[in-house]
Amino acid sequence: GRFRKTFTKGCVMKNKTLLVYTGVDLNMMIAEGGSGYWKLGTSSLQKVEYLIACKNYTKDWAVSDKNIPQGTAFFMAKVAGFQKMLDGQYEGRYLITFSEYTEIRIPKAWQKICVRGLPAARYFNTHDVLVDLAIEPSKLAWKSFIPAKNTSPQR
Q1: Which of 69, 87, 119, 140 can pair with 102 through a Cys bridge, CB separation 3.0 to 4.6 Å?
Q2: What is the pTM of this model?
Q3: How far is 57 from 89, CA to CA, in rounded Å?
């Protein structure tokens, strides 16, 4: 059966960056087809141009990487769209899909941008986040994001 409803971004001003605090790594995002599984609203998701992932080791399934400390921004992607999960354990949650990505290393990015206790997926004005984290997208080495052939939740 069909387990996802796909949304693509239409004529909406894209001026938001979604910062996520996640235990996944690049390989898990490829296997899952993006970054998920988030409780978010479609009206805000439509405005997202970038996703920045910060490392979170608090989940028991979190993928360990000694080279990426807790809170480090390790991944940035150009958002292509989002998919609503229609059944299973993540029903009603969203998977964010990407067109391109780059690997980054910005220590303590989550701690710098987010106040303790905020949700693990948070919207910010793109300009402000790029300035605060000293990111210049035009100077990054972007690669095509190619998801696995049969994507599915890996946790």
Answers
A1: 140
A2: 0.90
A3: 21
45 sits in which H/E element:
helix 42-45
Q: How far apart are CA 24 and CA 64, in angstroms?
A: 9
Give residue-wise pLDDT tens across range 98-145: 999 999 999 999 998 886 667 899 999 999 999 999 999 999 999 999
CA–CA distances in Å: residue 103 to residues 81, 127, 142: 20, 19, 8
**Per-residue pLDDT, 1:** 40
Give the H or E element holding residue 124: strand 121-125
Query: If you search the block for the tokens 């995002």, which residue do you land on?
Result: 29
The overall longest dimension of the chain from CA atoms, in Å, is 44
- How many residues appear in the chain? 155
Residue 20, helix vs strand vs coil: strand
